[in-house]
Amino acid sequence: MRTFWLAAMAAVFLVAGTAAFIPAEAGAEGFNRDVTLTEEQQKEMGALHREAFNKQKDIVNKYVEFNVLTKEKGEQIIAHFERAYKELEQNGFIPNWERPHHSEKQDN
């Protein structure tokens, strides 16, 4: 279980690390809401996200293989990754930073 959480945290830091590349002058929140990526940029971002998704999927499958995760839990995690990718794709690979997070849901 400890290994799973270490891997999960590593994935979070990899994803969160991309926020450091957002220009500071883009606004108080650190990103520009008015940007639309070109089709070429969307293809490039799609390829990067697909590569990251495939790597995360490989990691989850290894945990299932090593009996760290059950097959059902692994499938659930992979389905979550797929939903996140589809949401990014629908948004033109512009992240939706304004959706509520778990900590905010718990406060209500």
Q: Structural class, judged by helices and strands? A: mainly alpha
Element-by-element helix/strand order: HHHH
Radius of gyration: 16 Å
Mean pLDDT figure: 80
Number of strands: 0
Total of helices: 4
> What is the distance, rounded to the nearest whole angstrom, between the alpha carbons of the first and last residues?
29 Å
Biggest sheet statistics? none
Low-confidence stretches: 22-28
**Globular, elongated, flat, extended or rod-shaped: what is the shape?**
elongated
**Share of helix among residues?**
55-70%
Beta-strand proportion:
under 5%
Topology of this structure?
Blueprint: H1 2-17, H2 39-65, H3 71-90, H4 102-107
Helix pairs in contact: 2-3
Task: Please provide a written account of the structure.
The longest helix is centred in the middle third of the chain and has 27 residues, at 39-65. The chain is elongated, with a radius of gyration of 16 Å. The chain has helices at 2-17, 39-65, 71-90, 102-107. Helices cover 64% and strands 0% of the residues. The protein contains 4 helices and no strands. With 108 residues, the protein is mainly α.
Describe the structure using short key phrases.
single chain; 108 residues; mainly alpha; elongated
Compose a concise summary of this entry.
The chain has helices spanning 2-17, 39-65, 71-90, 102-107.
